[in-house]
Target: Aminopeptidase
Amino acid sequence: MIDTEMPNTPTVKLLFEDDVPGAGTGGGDIGNWSSKGKPNGSAAARNRSKTSGRCSGCSICLFLTIATVMFLAGAILGIYYFMHTYGNCIEATKKNTDSLDIHSTEASLEDEIFEQCGQLFPWKHVRLPESVVPSNYRLKLHPNLETSAIHGTVDIELKIVEETRFIVLHAQDLNLTTFTLRMGSQQVQARHLVCPRLSQWAFEVDEAFQPDSKLRLTLDYEGTIHTDLSGLYVNSHQSKSEDNKTVTISAVTQFEPTHARKMLPCFDEPSFKAVFDISIIRKKRHLARANMQLIRTEAYEDDLVLDQFAPTVVMPTYLLAVAILDGFEKVRRMTKTTLKPIEVNLYAPSDSLAGQSEFGLDTGVRALEYFEDFFDIPFPLQKTDMLALDDFAEGAMENWGLITFRDAMLLYHPNSSTEKAKETVSLVLCHEMAHQWFGNLVTMSWWNDLWLNEGFANFMEYLCVDELFPEWNVIHDFFIENFLQSMLQDGFRSSHAVSTEVIDPAQIGSIFDAISYQKGASIIQMLRGLAGKDAFRTALRKYLKKFEYSNAKGEDLWKIIQEHVTLHTTVSVTDVAETWTTQVGYPLVRVELIDGGSTLLIKDQTRFLFLEEERYANATDQWPIPVQYITDKHRSHKMSWLDPGAQDVKVPLNGPVSWIVANAASLGYYRVLYEATMYKEFAQQLTHDHTKIGPIDRAAILNDAFCFMRSGHLTAEVVMDLITYVEEGEEADRIPWVVILSNLKHIETLIGDTEMLGLFQKFERSLLLKVYERLGWDQPESHVDRMLQTDILALSCRLQLSDCTKQAQVRFHQWSHDKSSVFVDILPFVIEEGVRHGTPADWERVYREYRTAQNPSQRFMLLMALAASEDPALINRFMAMCLNPSIVRPNVLPRALGVLMQNKAAALPAWRFFRMNYDKIEALYGGTTTLLGILVKSMIENFNTQFDLDQVRAFFAARELSASQARVDQAIEMVKLNIQWRRINEKPLQQWLKKWGTKKRLVKF
Ligand SMILES: [Zn+2]
Model:
């Protein structure tokens, strides 16, 4: 899957975006905001005993999960009042209680199962026994789109691996009508038992089955088409025509991680791979699609038809997919450079297809061709479909041969989609195509290695887009969108290891987050950097070939990479990979120059934690750390290592240097804290000639500095002095700007109610003025310049740089009369400015446009602009819209309310509205997805007083957040960090601003 990051928003919001992939249920008691999770029984589940007692009764459903995730946004800041040198990582004496544990005890799970499913149920573990494995499913499914009923028959071929008296498989929200169990032609008598807590059915016989026996289990069952975006669920599409608001209903699947069991009884774990023969019964006017190509359509009873699809390749249940579509059309293209031509189809509602399918189709084809070549393994299916859906909790899902997308992630219109939207569509397409090999062909053995799927796909999407659109320089975006984002979430005790033990569906959902995706990708980037591009690719090809149609673990990959790589240190590739993927968090490395600048001293490492209260004395976490460095005298990268436990490592530098970048190109996943004098050198170098430090290194130094200001390792003075170089207007690279703009914006929210706000905004305007004038309002040629212009102009207008406000309003009025008169990239903030300063009639005009826009990313942009009004009546109207799913889709609601919270005039009413209508909002989502958590997080994460925090806690004290708990816990930590920031930084920042204001007092902004 991929996250739900929405395009068409000013790109500087990147660091604050919320919708991160995954997240989850965690379950547990939220009363005290702890992350106490649902029982998991980790070890128990792996210890698969074969038997158990018996007893009766079962009740209580399990809550499942899903997840989209994303997380973390927010930029990064901190300053510690008393510190002038680095160091002094304020070591709190707090005991190492280790991170808020999302797992609970094995014993409690056993107890719960026993209590809820009774003694009769013969299996007591969340994970299925391995004594019986499926090889083939023949599924005949009749989903009735009018009644939402599912009737299914599934015929499962089974093989006995170990002697056993029962077959256990998953089923959730399904009712068994009849079943037969056969061995050869002989029917076997069996008892059917149910354990809803585990979503399991068992079929028990008196006489044990012997190894190598073949069985056939046929199940006739009833189920439901769901409305909570999981299992087989309802996707509705409303026509965008002003006079015809017809709604068409389709049904599509989202099974990852544990929702296949809601459509058919199955062995719903990734290692139970099998072949699926699928038939769908449908009305004639509907269109059915599945993983494989259609091979036959025949008449069925009651004027229905039955579509039969070709048998799938061997694959896990979470990749199974079907769609029964109403009102969809397709465009089609064949690949050219693949071994065999592959049919690629893009499906969308017929009124959405025109004019906006070409880019997605073309990029999908090119991505497929790229990966077949890159991995050197032919794509094994004849076709792949790509579906644009209105209702989709994720960004996209890689179902083999039937990839599903949130519409904004697939449809691109050259006149209504921004450059950012184009980049997002490309990255998402490449991500899903990478999964066709990484994840689909070779699947993680269990969800603890989810990151192998997602980290790789997240990493490979950038290589792919870089190949397809080299002029975009998208590798720079990798740094912002993966490295920085995940380091924010990973800087708290509540974080988890990349490879983390998970058992319960609730926990599985919670790891679809920035750690699995973005940190996973960053670790992979580090390993590739250490191995070298060619050796890395060779190893990947061998890995995929060796484990194709099978399952693998992280260690399987490390072993193969290790065969191709020698690291010049005492640690092996496996050591590096294992430590970085199994240990929570990341290190802070302290360095300085000694011996007159001719020696690099790598002092030590400690785990980096934002919150002082979370740090603890005698922390023992250590990592093998590659220290790749450049200096002002030596531009080529050199490498040294800081081994676990090592301190004061001296590296001779071949002559004196003024500064050193100690994690050059951000190869390693860690932060570097330099001694105080080095920051002065950096500041001088940036002012004198900033290009001497590369763009990623500039961005990393600045970003780390903002983070250290947040954590208290650096003062406001050091950080503000570092960024003033951009005042000259010479900084032309986007990523240092993204770091600066997002962090400034975050500081602004923290000091929004203080008297220094005005002066701080003056400071911001002074930083922007020259680059604003340089970039101007004409449309730049290149993709990269267009993205930078959007960021700079958006912030300039928000800061009410007078010319910006004027220009934006002129363009808003032009746009009101002629939609094509303003180029699309600047539209988001032009319309936002128009709404902010406009009349109710202007708001109405934008609203009408929102209701009729065909392009999903444009629609999203218009909705965000509507949240900018400061008129109380319109703010109320916007909030009322948010409760009407036909006007604001639940999957964009978190962002809609999040943006409203950033509107000063609306923040208090919005928070009140949210609490008053919480029950209705909760009902929109159900407990399955993490969208509620994303929403709560977007509402509260900018709070920055103890009063706010107490209010939040009081409000949620008696509320159950199930799937969304982890998100909300993260938001709480962010609020604590905001409070810490204010405590540490407010006064020093004010003093610095006063000094700066005195210097600038003659300058007019
Ligand atoms: Zn993915």
About this structure: Residues 898 and 938 are 5 Å apart (CA to CA). Confidence is low (pLDDT under 50) at residues 5-105. Residues 1-2, 398, 431, 435, 454, 457 surround zinc ion (CB under 6 Å). The first helix runs from residue 42 to 46.
